[in-house]
Amino acid sequence: MNKNPSNVMALAPNTSNKRETVCIFGTGDFGRALGHKMIQSGYSVVYGSRSTQISNLIPKDAEVLSHAEAAQKAAVIIIAIQRQHYNFLIPLAEILHGKVLVDISNNLKLNQYPESNAEYLAQLLPGSRVVKAFNTVSAWALQSGTLDASRQVFVCGDDMEAKQMVMNIVRALGLTPLDKGSLLAAQEIENYPLQLFPMWKFPIFLSLGLIVFFFLYCLALDVIYTYIYEKNNFSFFIAITIPNRVCPVMALILLALVYLPGIFAAIIQLYRGTKYRRFPDWLDRWMLCRKQLGLIALAFAFLHAVFTLVTPLRAFASWRTSRRIISQALNNETEPLNNTNAWLSDSYLALGILGFFLFVLLGITSLPSVSNNVNWREFRFVQSKLGYLALILCTAHTLVYGGKWFLNPSAYKWYLPDIYMLSLIIPCAVLVVKFVLILPCVDKPLTQIRQGWERNPKHSE
Length: 461
Ligand code: NAP
What we know:
Elements: H1 5-11, E1 21-25, H2 29-40, E2 44-48, E3 63-65, H3 67-72, E4 76-79, H4 93-96, E5 100-103, H5 117-124, E6 129-132, H6 139-143, E7 152-157, H7 160-172, E8 176-179, H8 186-191, H9 201-230, H10 241-272, H11 281-288, H12 290-310, H13 315-330, H14 339-365, H15 368-371, H16 376-406, H17 419-437, H18 440-450
Parallel strand pairs: 1-2, 1-4, 2-3, 4-5, 5-6, 7-8
Antiparallel strand pairs: 6-7
Helix pairs in contact: 9-10, 10-12, 10-16, 10-17, 12-14, 14-16, 16-17
NADP nicotinamide-adenine-dinucleotide phosphate (NAP) binds near residues 49, 50 and 138.
């Protein structure tokens, strides 16, 4: 590895406010934004460009030279040029020998080329030390002070010293470097800005499918059925009543779906007698998006709480209350307090409030800033133990609410069960199987398997 004097200079401890000189090839949007940020952070910036004419877009204190001249002035050269133009670097191979080349490029499509742009650059200039960085930061974020965008900069490269030099620059710019390992990781880093919420796709499509199903289900039973058989036009139920039936159902089912893959995984491990065989792909993918499923469930629980709070403000609610009072007054009736009903209603509300509280706690601990500050055991305690407690409370909340009329034949319109009965199927199944799994006779072999024990070791080959 060539250690030219400029490299040594770049690594020397900085005793003044002025940092070393960094070269940027390309005076385009990104080159200019990065150069501006670097000058602000105390670096000297020299641009390598096809045209050495200074335009007023170039940061004021920067120099603009030819590529060859600029490269000689710095140990670190940032290539702010699209991959398709990299060929122009080949004649500069000698000057770039031993220099740290920072590939910041992105592509237009996922896996657009067989190799990553950074690996391609390393193949073109084998004597240079290529590091991938900065591609996840946009020119706009750099210009706007990186205050309202992600500060994470993924860095990878085969040369540890070169990587450290780039990570030091990242830190000096007020960004957070994240070492992703060798240059092999460059493909993944280049694909990262092209992905659109990859972990959210399955939870969002699943939620949309379930919402449409439950909404139409409620529409049929609460509006169409009532219109046909009772001649009541309750179409306004579409605004609040039906959403307030769909939201808790969605929250409960999605929360149960967060814990269901763990149950499947335990059953599969018990059946196979080993943890050393991969789970089916669908289960792996499901496990990876549990956090997203939980956050969507929390959003539905929150909407349910808001819809419930506005219920007394509705014209329908005040009409129903006044109708009951007037009818009691006309018939000279008094309604004694039904203690059982009062207990049921208070317990139902208390269970809902406690369940929602734990739900919010689960959401908060899933935030990276919080989960980074708890250890593995604490994280598992909240997500698993408190998570199951939240599921128990929310399931009990639904059971107490609908318990009485689940058994009432009038709840079955068109022989269909009420939506709340449907919502209880998955949560109850999860809780019952979980209860079986924590019985000592099942839990013991499962724990052994998870610690590496195998019932039949040849199965793991
Ligand atoms: P740009 O505005 O089009 O600038 C590209 C620069 O490349 C040009 O200004 C030009 O600089 C130089 N160039 C163009 N054709 C060339 C050729 N044939 N030979 C040599 N140099 C040539 O693009 P950009 O937005 O700055 O993006 C530059 C790189 O940064 C890309 O790889 C992009 O994927 C990556 N990136 C951009 C952003 C962003 O937000 N813009 C974010 C992350 C990564 P000179 O005229 O000075 O020679």
